[in-house]
UniProtKB/TrEMBL annotation:
<keyword id="KW-0663">Pyridoxal phosphate</keyword>
<dbReference type="InterPro" id="IPR050596">
    <property type="entry name" value="AspAT/PAT-like"/>
</dbReference>
<keyword id="KW-0808">Transferase</keyword>
<dbReference type="InterPro" id="IPR004839">
    <property type="entry name" value="Aminotransferase_I/II_large"/>
</dbReference>
<feature type="domain" description="Aminotransferase class I/classII large">
    <location>
        <begin position="186"/>
        <end position="395"/>
    </location>
</feature>
<protein>
    <recommendedName>
        <fullName>Aminotransferase class I/classII large domain-containing protein</fullName>
    </recommendedName>
</protein>
<dbReference type="InterPro" id="IPR015424">
    <property type="entry name" value="PyrdxlP-dep_Trfase"/>
</dbReference>
<comment type="similarity">
    <text>Belongs to the class-I pyridoxal-phosphate-dependent aminotransferase family.</text>
</comment>
<keyword id="KW-0032">Aminotransferase</keyword>
<dbReference type="GO" id="GO:0006520">
    <property type="term" value="P:amino acid metabolic process"/>
</dbReference>
<dbReference type="GO" id="GO:0008483">
    <property type="term" value="F:transaminase activity"/>
</dbReference>
<dbReference type="Pfam" id="PF00155">
    <property type="entry name" value="Aminotran_1_2"/>
</dbReference>
<dbReference type="InterPro" id="IPR015421">
    <property type="entry name" value="PyrdxlP-dep_Trfase_major"/>
</dbReference>
<dbReference type="GO" id="GO:0030170">
    <property type="term" value="F:pyridoxal phosphate binding"/>
</dbReference>
């Protein structure tokens, strides 16, 4: 008897026949529609020229170029490898214990795939984790005992999308006032230290705020904000963005710097948005969080996450600490913009907070890599002070190599990436050029560079083959 599968055997009268799939034909986009869409692109996104060179997010452009350059890697040849020191994205994996907690919640909690909204995960979720905000409060009090008599769940809010989402959406929507406000309140003036993490100041995100850039200054190999500040604030409502510990310079604040900043903020009525993404990776003994300074709550919105200290950038789990009134309005904004994170991801983030020792190990690991890279950069002629915090070293860029003078910092970075095959981020501050060297290094075993240390050694070897002028 034939075992041929037919529609007759399934109760139908027509034999089942195999039909060759038609080849897929890709219809090219209609060129006439390009102009239609371009003329409708909002000015905040760049208008019709939104995709012109230099108009996009620089990190994405670098990553795209790196993917192309990596194709030239030759197996077994260290000198051919593209060495990526560009993006401060940890290459180690988040601890498996955190991931396992998320898996356990997924298996045990019947609501594991449902909306979490503003509350996050609740106690009784199949793990021994409590409510999301209770866990965050416990962590913060353990990390900053000064908060023990102050902090409750009304002072914190977990942030889907970590710090970047808070800077791009939640905070501007809640606190940035547009020109022509119906309540006649003053338009927001965003004070932005340069260089820095530009998400909050981008036209896409800043909600019409006026941006005043404040170039950082270097004194005796220490970066700092110029002080005292004398800004024209009379006609605006000031918001100061402080990415401290700072990326890319590694600048930190001690108690005195924070007290001076908060005193100024109280005098002028400024909101201070403090981005503490790198607070767990401080190498300077007197560096401290603004949360340790009495009176921080009068003006500050503090952002933290598990991204850097716990090697968990892809988890996108962060939290906001602020006065309860500020948290209350942020919750109103978030409720309209998001339905919460995936519950197992929240559980993994909370498990990280239960294990602060993991950040100690990460800090030790990165500090060792910093010292190794720093020694090599100095030997190659760079003025390279050790960073006070973070994942990057920030050095003046060479103006010439082997007698050839660069016309711009873009040309300099291009030479590093395409000729030296060392990918870095570049910055221009006034008339000065800088390069950022991230120690979140990924080994290239196919090119006989099996460790991060071997990659650093290869970087230094290549630098030693050229005459750099500064």
């Amino acid at each position: 008897m034939s075992n041929t599968n037919t529609l007759v055997s399934r109760g139908f009268q027509v034999p089942l026949t195999e039909v060759e799939p038609a080849p897929r034909v890709i219809t090219p986009p209609d060129p006439s529609l390009d102009g239609f869409w371009r003329c409708r692109v909002a000015d905040r996104c760049g208008g019709a020229g939104f995709d012109e060179p230099g108009s996009g997010y620089s990190f994405s452009a670098v990553l795209a170029e790196e993917r192309e350059l990596e194709q030239l890697n030759q197996p077994g040849d260290p000198s051919s490898a593209l060495l990526k020191l560009s993006i401060a994205d940890p290459t180690d994996k988040m601890s498996y214990e955190a991931f396992a907690t998320g898996i356990k919640l997924f298996h045990e909690c019947p609501d594991a795939s449902r909306y979490t909204d503003l509350a996050g995960v609740r106690a009784g979720n199949g793990t021994d984790l409590g409510d999301t905000h209770e866990e965050i409060v416990k962590y913060l009090i353990g990390r900053f005992p000064q908060l023990a008599d102050q902090l409750t769940v009304d002072w914190v809010q977990y942030s889907p999308g970590a710090i970047k989402r808070a800077l791009a959406e939640y905070i501007p929507a809640a606190f940035f006032i547009n020109e022509g406000s119906p309540t006649s309140r003053r338009q927001t003036q965003l004070l932005y230290p340069k260089p820095g993490y530009g998400v909050i100041k981008d036209a896409i995100n800043r909600r019409g705020a006026i941006v005043t850039e404040i170039p950082l200054e270097n004194h005796n190999d220490r970066w700092q904000m110029p002080f005292p500040w004398d800004f024209q604030l009379a006609d605006y409502s000031p918001v100061l963005y402080l990415n401290v510990p700072h990326n890319p310079t590694g600048m930190t604040y001690d108690v005195n710097r924070w007290m001076a900043t908060l005193c100024w903020a109280r005098d002028v009525g400024a909101i201070v948005v403090v981005d503490e993404a790198y607070i767990d990776l401080c190498y300077r003994h007197d560096a401290c969080s603004v949360l340790t300074i009495p009176g921080w709550e009068a003006n500050c919105i503090v952002l933290q996450s598990v991204s850097k200290g716990w090697d968990a950038t892809g988890l996108r789990f962060g939290w906001i600490v602020a006065h309860p009134t500020a948290i209350k309005v942020l919750r109103k904004v978030m409720d309209l913009k998001d339905s919460g994170m995936f519950a197992p991801s929240i559980a993994a983030g909370l498990e990280c907070l239960r294990n602060p020792v993991w950040t100690t190990r990460a800090k030790q690991r990165y500090e060792q890599l910093h010292r190794l890279l720093n020694a090599g950069l100095r030997e190659a002629g760079f003025n390279a002070p050790m960073p006070e915090a973070g994942l990057c070293q920030f050095t003046p860029a060479p103006v010439a190599v082997d007698g050839h003078r660069f016309g711009s910092i873009i040309e300099c970075a291009k030479w590093f990436r395409q000729t030296l095959r060392v990918s870095l981020m570049d910055y221009e501050l006034g008339r000065h050029w800088y390069l950022r060297w991230a120690v979140t290094i990924k080994p290239v075993p196919e090119c006989d560079l099996p460790t991060r240390e071997s990659v650093i050694a290869e970087v230094c070897r290549r630098l030693g083959e050229h005459r750099l002028s500064f």
